[in-house]
Amino acid sequence: MEAIRNFFSTPWSSDQKLEDQTVVITGANTGIGKETAIDLAKRGARVIIACRDMEKAQEAVKEVISNSGNENVVCMKLDLADIKSIREFAEAINKDEPKLNILINNAGVMVCPYGKTADGFEMQIGVNHMGHFLLTHLLIDLIKRSAPARIVTVSSMAHSWGSINLEDINSEKSYDKKAAYSQSKLANVLFTRSLAKKLEGTGVTTYSLHPGVVQTDLWRHLNGPQQFVMKMVSPFTKTSVQGAQTTIYCAVEPTLEKESGGYYSDCAPANCSAAGKDDDLAQKLWELSCRMLSVTWD
Ligand SMILES: NC(=O)c1ccc[n+]([C@@H]2O[C@H](COP(=O)([O-])OP(=O)(O)OC[C@H]3O[C@@H](n4cnc5c(N)ncnc54)[C@H](OP(=O)(O)O)[C@@H]3O)[C@@H](O)[C@H]2O)c1
User: In 3D, which of 52, 60, 200, 199 has the Cα closest to residue 137?
Assistant: First the structure.
């Protein structure tokens, strides 16, 4: 099984160091986020694990420290399904951290039953897109002051099956959990595309990516038959370590320094869907996000 997995894994590595750099990773208590945290801590970065469950977060901090040998790893409370929590987190970072060189928007929920965030957004668009949009907005001045800096957003190939329902982004009229996940992941790609334009000339670059099909807790909402299929195809899927490689590549690869706004997979540039390149849609989503979050971001 290991041999099959390695065949599908990514042949990229870099000894790029991150000493004197600060990294925030959302949803890093498990899965791809935790493996990303271990790798970036090994490179010498100060790593801030941003999680909604502080018990799980403390456990992850211990694991990241023991696997990386870097003691400069902390956790902070962040619930992306709650604007108040996002604002409190950002306020603490802006007050206490002199710099933020890498922001990794990694946390996500997939195909969950219909639910709403504290502020009334459908859960998948709320956590995966709106939460990260607001978080990035609130941290952007600090990130700009820390340039060269990077913002990496973990999307998915599922974005290519999606569209943005500008008339009913919260799926209130009808909810299809797979379509809502794809919508949120397309929103990640479009956000990155628009953000790159707004950040031109600032020294801050931004990337979105597909990590691969990775064995993590993300699949928890799949039904019995779907779980069975996942088990059957598991030799062809990635481990969390393998699944973290494209995120790490986007965060550290020196040749990406002059690139911004693109989409990556298997540690290389990749083609996103036509909708993911639609600048008009990206602008409309940007404006809608600002309105829904009551922020101004030109
Ligand atoms: N696994 C795959 O095959 C795959 C494929 C394509 C894209 N992705 C993307 O990869 C990213 C990481 O997913 P993963 O596979 O590593 O899944 P995972 O193991 O389920 O990790 C998801 C993380 O997001 C956190 N999270 C969920 N809701 C949150 C909220 N409201 N506030 C803060 N954190 C929250 C989770 O916290 P809890 O532990 O508290 O739930 C967890 O730490 C996601 O964006 C996902 O869409 C994954």
Answer: 199
Nearest-CA neighbor of 161 among 274, 28, 35, 9?
A: 274
SS3 150: strand
Distance, in Å, from the CA atom of 272 to the CA atom of 210, rounded to the nearest integer, reads 10
pLDDT digits (tens, 9 = 90+) for 36-78: 999 999 999 999 999 999 999 999 999 999 999 999 999 999 9
106 Cα to the center of ligand 1, angstroms: 7
Using a 10 angstrom Cβ sphere, with 0-12 exposed, 13-18 middle and 19 or more buried, the burial of residue 203 is middle
Read off the DSSP letter of residue 39: H
Instruction: Look at residues 108, 115, 210 and name the one whose alpha carbon lies nearest to residue 159.
Output: 210
Domains of the chain: 2-292 (3.40.50.720)
Whether pTM exceeds 0.90: yes
* Residue nearest atom 20 of ligand 1, based on CA coordinates: 218
Q: What is the spatial order of strands in the sheet that 268-269 belongs to?
A: 73-77, 46-51, 22-26, 102-105, 149-154, 204-210, 263-265, 268-269
**Which letter does DSSP use for residue 214 in this model?**
B
Out of 56, 134, 157, 216, mutate this one to test ligand 1's pocket (max ligand atoms within 8 Å of CB): namely: 216
Helix axis angle, 132-145 to 177-198, nearest 10°: 20
Q: Could you report the per-residue pLDDT of 240-251, keeping only the tens digit for each?
A: 999 999 999 999
Contacts 24+ apart (CB under 8 A), 59-64: 59/29, 60/28, 60/29, 60/30, 60/34, 63/34, 63/38, 64/28, 64/34, 64/37, 64/38
How far apart CA 247 and CA 267 sit, in angstroms, is 8
User: Tokens 């696997």 correspond to what residue?
Assistant: 67
Which token pair is 228? 């069975």
In this structure, are residues 169 and 288 in contact, taking their beta carbons and an 8 Å threshold? yes
**Among all residues, which ones are annotated catalytic?**
181
